[in-house]
Amino acid sequence: MIEILISLFVLSGSLLSLIGSIGIMRLPDVYARMHAATKSATLGVVLLILGTFTYFLAEGVFSLQLLITIVFVFLTAPVAAMIISRSAHRNGVELWSQTKHDELMESYPEHLEPERDNEKADNS
């Protein structure tokens, strides 16, 4: 029975990592790719580590390091993605052409708004 549980963790983690990888290649802009990289890949890595933790637990070994790794991945991956996305937005990386609302643009003070290439082209 424990082998089935471990297999479910490992297979679902692998599937989520595969979906995240496909999303990174197929999604249209850096912001959507960051979403794919963090959401599915983070959950995929956590499920793989959970499968490993369950395997060692079934063998009689309690691994605190694996549990700490799960917490670390859950805490750091979303924060890193948010910082990378904000940095890209701040440096003027273009949004997808069909993006309807830019929430980050409203959060900047007027003198710190990022310059976009298409805005430069419109002004010249």
UniProtKB/TrEMBL annotation:
Q: How does it sit in the membrane?
A: Multi-pass membrane protein
Domain of life from the UniProt record: Bacteria
Q: Which InterPro entries match?
A: PhaG_MnhG_YufB (IPR005133)
- What stretches pass through the bilayer? 6-28, 40-58, 64-84
Organism of origin is Salicibibacter cibarius
Keywords attached to this Swiss-Prot or TrEMBL record, sorted alphabetically, are: Antiport, Membrane, Transmembrane, Transmembrane helix, Transport
A single GO CC term, please? membrane
This chain's protein is named Na+/H+ antiporter subunit G
Q: Does the UniProt entry include the keyword Transmembrane?
A: yes
Q: In which compartments does the protein localize?
A: Membrane
Q: Which family does it belong to?
A: Belongs to the CPA3 antiporters (TC 2.A.63) subunit G family.
Give GO MF terms, alphabetically.
sodium:proton antiporter activity
